[in-house]
From TrEMBL:
Its cofactor is FAD. Residues 2-347 form the FAD-binding domain. It comes from Kutzneria buriramensis. GO terms for molecular function: FAD binding; oxidoreductase activity, acting on paired donors, with incorporation or reduction of molecular oxygen, NAD(P)H as one donor, and incorporation of one atom of oxygen. Keywords: FAD, Flavoprotein. The keyword Ribonucleoprotein does not apply. InterPro entries: FAD-bd (IPR002938), FAD/NAD-bd_sf (IPR036188), RIFMO-like (IPR050641). It comes from the Bacteria. This is 2-polyprenyl-6-methoxyphenol hydroxylase-like FAD-dependent oxidoreductase. Signal peptide: none annotated.
């Protein structure tokens, strides 16, 4: 094996699928004996669907196609459960909506893909020890040791990998406990309903499917706790009776909740790893960040972590990754750690908006909801953050303004851009009238022609004649001429060479 992935949750499965698609030998160790049917992360945002459109499911379908067939498309979504909603319909994406789909279905689809590709996912294997060394990483499962040159810890919030690699998990301790349950309602709600009650707390009811509704909230009595008290209360399982009582106290009625398919308690711990990489060990998903489940972001950001990680690690394993992709300015840690910091900060902001049970809190919510209702800059900013479409990576000084942004789904001569991006190679989009860039194709660069992009959304593309798209769909290079294009391609796709004097050259 080239890579061992610890954890067969959505992020571990996605990492394995992308590594496999990039030609890497990978296997997954998962503690549970079979896939768990929990609906946890049920909101899939547009950028997640975009990256899943890049992953081939076989039979001409993409993973996104399979998900779309099983989920429900909702064009508007909430921020901090505020009554005025963010409208995704105007977003520049083929997926201008959130897809409501239970997390277990997403996991099942990824597991099906891995099975079809004969990638081993070992269920019922608990990794108890991880020993990183200079040239490999060893893991202990039962009485047996396994090793690989690299290891990805996608083993969730309490990651043994993170601890074994000595990576600190920095942030804030929890001070409140929430309740969450997927239930049926004797008195169904057509759309999301939110209740704030100054004395009793907050509760939301959000339909997930025709029959299942997610109910979540926080009792006022479960706020302002010590971390120890939070832990103690979380260990006491939520009961249907307690849920009924909480809803009655907060909403004045219990909506006839019954037949729960999942019940749990959440907290507002906000932490992220101080680094995503220690030697040959990398972290992804909840192993790298935990936060209040607000705005449906954990799963989405985790899947984006996997997308950023996989092609770079594949390049490293294949031996062609330049240093910038390993530990440099375009490396996994350099690009994704800031996203985790922003994720924790924005869920903390939502925590305050959602859980301030005072007249001041109500006024703050009214004010903020009003900003969203205006549909201006604030709404656009928040939609960009939640949808994942506004995430950008570093743009070097003097580079084209598109560099570091995600490539939109441009029409190419052959297909659309998202369906041409592949996890194992760069895509060079040739906008020249005479297809003059064809000669730059190589094992690591596929060239596709395209008509010059036009229209109000494409003003930044007006003069672009060549665009180099990374395997994760981000723009590595864009220019109005082919000058220095060969140099740019080499800088991304060839290892650095050291001269006798120790200087690094390309
Ligand atoms: C109530 C709730 C609602 C949520 N809603 C949303 C939402 O709407 N949208 C969204 O994007 N996110 C949401 N999330 C967050 C989302 O569920 C998580 O971010 C997501 O599950 C993270 O995936 P992961 O693969 O990183 O970790 P996990 O799903 O935790 O998977 C880790 C896996 O590793 C395994 N494992 C752990 N230790 C070991 C070991 N030592 N050896 C072998 N295997 C091991 C575990 O069994 C597990 O299967 C929600 C979370 C909660 C709790």
């Amino acid at each position: 094996m080239d890579v061992i992935v610890v954890g067969g949750g959505p992020v571990g499965l996605m990492t394995a699928a992308l590594l496999d698609a990039a030609g890497i030998q990978v296997e997954v160790y998962e503690r549970t004996s079979e896939p768990v049917r929990q609906s946890r992360g049920s909101t899939m945002h547009p950028r997640t669907l975009e990256v899943l459109a890049m992953l081939d499911f076989g039979g001409g379908r993409r993973v996104s196609d399979v998900l779309l067939a099983q989920g429900k498309q909702v064009p508007r979504t909430h921020y901090a459960t505020l009554p005025d909603l963010l409208d995704y319909r105007e977003l520049d994406t083929p997926f201008p909506f959130v897809l409501m789909i239970s997390q277990w279905r997403t996991e099942q689809i990824l597991a099906d893909l891995l099975r079809a590709r004969a990638v081993p996912v070992h269920y019922g294997t608990d990794v108890t020890e991880v020993v990183p060394a200079a040239d490999e990483v060893r893991v202990c499962v039962g009485d047996t040791w396994h090793s690989a040159p690299y290891l990805v810890g996608a083993d969730g919030a309490h990651s043994v990998v993170r601890k074994a690699a000595g990576i600190d998990f920095t942030g804030t301790a929890p001070d409140k406990v929430g309740f969450v349950a997927d239930v049926r309602l004797a008195e169904p709600v057509e759309q999301a309903v939110h209740h704030w009650n100054q004395d009793a707390g907050f509760a939301s009811l959000v339909p997930l499917t025709q029959t299942i509704t997610r109910v979540f909230g926080v009792k006022a009595a479960d706020v302002g706790l010590t971390a120890e008290e939070v832990r103690r209360r979380q260990t006491v399982p939520l009961t249907l009776e307690e849920l009924r009582k909480s809803l009655t106290a907060i909403c004045g009625r219990d909506y006839g909740v019954h037949s729960p398919s999942w019940m749990s308690k959440s907290s507002n711990t906000g932490r992220h790893a101080v680094t995503y990489r220690a030697g040959r060990v990398l972290l992804a998903g909840d192993a790298g960040h935990v936060h209040l489940p607000a705005g449906g972001q954990g799963l989405n950001v985790g899947l984006q972590d996997a997308t950023n990680l996989a092609w770079k690690l594949a390049a490293e394993v294949h031996g062609w990754a330049p240093a910038r992709l390993i530990t440099g300015e375009a490396g996994y840690n350099a690009e994704r750690l800031p996203v985790a910091e922003q994720l924790v900060a924005n869920t903390q902001a939502q925590d305050v908006l959602m859980h301030a049970f005072s007249p001041g809190g109500a006024a703050l919510r009214d004010l903020f909801s009003g900003f969203i209702a205006q549909g201006g800059e604030v709404a656009r900013y928040l939609a960009g953050v939640l949808s994942g479409l506004a995430v950008t990576y570093r743009r070097p000084d003097g580079a084209h303004e598109l560099v570091g942004t995600r490539a939109p789904d441009l029409a190419l001569t052959s297909d659309t851009l998202l369906r041409e991006v592949r996890p194992d190679r760069f895509l060079l989009v040739d906008f020249t009238p005479d297809a003059s860039l064809a000669g730059l194709a190589s094992a690591r660069v596929e060239v596709r022609t395209a008509p010059p992009p036009t229209g109000p959304r494409r003003t930044a593309w007006k003069d672009v004649r060549a665009a180099l798209i990374r395997p994760d769909g981000y723009i590595a290079h864009a220019a109005s001429s082919a000058d220095r294009l060969t140099e740019a391609i080499r800088a991304w796709t060839e290892p650095d060479h050291r001269t006798a004097s120790g200087m690094t050259v390309r």
